[in-house]
């Protein structure tokens, strides 16, 4: 459609100086650079008191970020994980989650708000246009870029305004501590719990099937009995955790068939007690061959010889099953004479 087809009343007014200038520029060069608008100074550029107020505002925001980060860490320590509080309008929520989210949000927001306020009020706002056609800059352009960078750094006041710089460094240094503290919430530290079980001197060997303490007469040659420590009950909240380390298998071997000297000393009349937890990946061992005295892990077929210190004779297991030293108390019941001499289960402890 040409301009002759447009009604005259809809055409731009020739008296409009702005439209006439644009029309003239378009007529000469449709892609002409309209240029940048005149630069207007901010109040901070002409009034040092206003600049100082902005500087204090930015420093205050960075300081609030530091305080919020410290509050984040304090909340993590102060509030128990099961504490529930009522907060309007959220209702009943976890005090720990609310405090962690609030303090971390304030810490991050204050850093961002401080950086934005610093850039908008104190850093140079002069726009610089630079045409770049070749991909690789010429030495002159590189020199100009470095000059512009140095000029921008100087105008930002980063070196001169030490209050902002120091508080910003403080805020940026403390915020990562929030992430380090969160690592503590991955779970309780194992400490040395994997190296010890519930077995101790005087603990009776309790049959897991009958829930009764064992006498030597209850264990026949060739039989396999699974035991647990006295006092551990299935309704205990940590039963699975404890039995995963303390599960015991008890077998009776003819004393003449026992090859290992220490094994014979730690047994009672041929009754030996070994950890039920496979030393490969921690599966429960449950298959016993009474003629060979071999036990087999059903997961990956690791095989142990119970007549020779429960050493590995086949499969991927890394070391022998730990033996529990046992004896008989005054009432005639089998009891432990201590804990296992080494951690049960997979050989993490051999590598650390």
From TrEMBL:
<dbReference type="GO" id="GO:0051537">
    <property type="term" value="F:2 iron, 2 sulfur cluster binding"/>
</dbReference>
<keyword id="KW-0408">Iron</keyword>
<feature type="transmembrane region" description="Helical">
    <location>
        <begin position="93"/>
        <end position="116"/>
    </location>
</feature>
<keyword id="KW-0479">Metal-binding</keyword>
<dbReference type="InterPro" id="IPR045603">
    <property type="entry name" value="QcrA_N"/>
</dbReference>
<keyword id="KW-1003">Cell membrane</keyword>
<feature type="region of interest" description="Disordered">
    <location>
        <begin position="1"/>
        <end position="39"/>
    </location>
</feature>
<keyword id="KW-0249">Electron transport</keyword>
<dbReference type="GO" id="GO:0004497">
    <property type="term" value="F:monooxygenase activity"/>
</dbReference>
<dbReference type="InterPro" id="IPR017941">
    <property type="entry name" value="Rieske_2Fe-2S"/>
</dbReference>
<dbReference type="GO" id="GO:0046872">
    <property type="term" value="F:metal ion binding"/>
</dbReference>
<keyword id="KW-1133">Transmembrane helix</keyword>
<feature type="domain" description="Rieske">
    <location>
        <begin position="245"/>
        <end position="335"/>
    </location>
</feature>
<feature type="transmembrane region" description="Helical">
    <location>
        <begin position="163"/>
        <end position="183"/>
    </location>
</feature>
<keyword id="KW-0001">2Fe-2S</keyword>
<keyword id="KW-0472">Membrane</keyword>
<keyword id="KW-0679">Respiratory chain</keyword>
<dbReference type="Pfam" id="PF00355">
    <property type="entry name" value="Rieske"/>
</dbReference>
<keyword id="KW-0411">Iron-sulfur</keyword>
<feature type="transmembrane region" description="Helical">
    <location>
        <begin position="58"/>
        <end position="81"/>
    </location>
</feature>
<dbReference type="Pfam" id="PF19297">
    <property type="entry name" value="QcrA_N"/>
</dbReference>
<dbReference type="GO" id="GO:0005886">
    <property type="term" value="C:plasma membrane"/>
</dbReference>
<keyword id="KW-0560">Oxidoreductase</keyword>
<protein>
    <recommendedName>
        <fullName>Cytochrome bc1 complex Rieske iron-sulfur subunit</fullName>
    </recommendedName>
</protein>
<keyword id="KW-0812">Transmembrane</keyword>
<comment type="similarity">
    <text>Belongs to the Rieske iron-sulfur protein family.</text>
</comment>
<dbReference type="InterPro" id="IPR036922">
    <property type="entry name" value="Rieske_2Fe-2S_sf"/>
</dbReference>
<keyword id="KW-0813">Transport</keyword>
<keyword id="KW-1015">Disulfide bond</keyword>
<dbReference type="InterPro" id="IPR014349">
    <property type="entry name" value="Rieske_Fe-S_prot"/>
</dbReference>
<comment type="function">
    <text>Iron-sulfur subunit of the cytochrome bc1 complex, an essential component of the respiratory electron transport chain required for ATP synthesis. The bc1 complex catalyzes the oxidation of menaquinol and the reduction of cytochrome c in the respiratory chain. The bc1 complex operates through a Q-cycle mechanism that couples electron transfer to generation of the proton gradient that drives ATP synthesis.</text>
</comment>
<dbReference type="GO" id="GO:0016705">
    <property type="term" value="F:oxidoreductase activity, acting on paired donors, with incorporation or reduction of molecular oxygen"/>
</dbReference>
<comment type="subunit">
    <text>The cytochrome bc1 complex is composed of a cytochrome b (QcrB), the Rieske iron-sulfur protein (QcrA) and a diheme cytochrome c (QcrC) subunit.</text>
</comment>
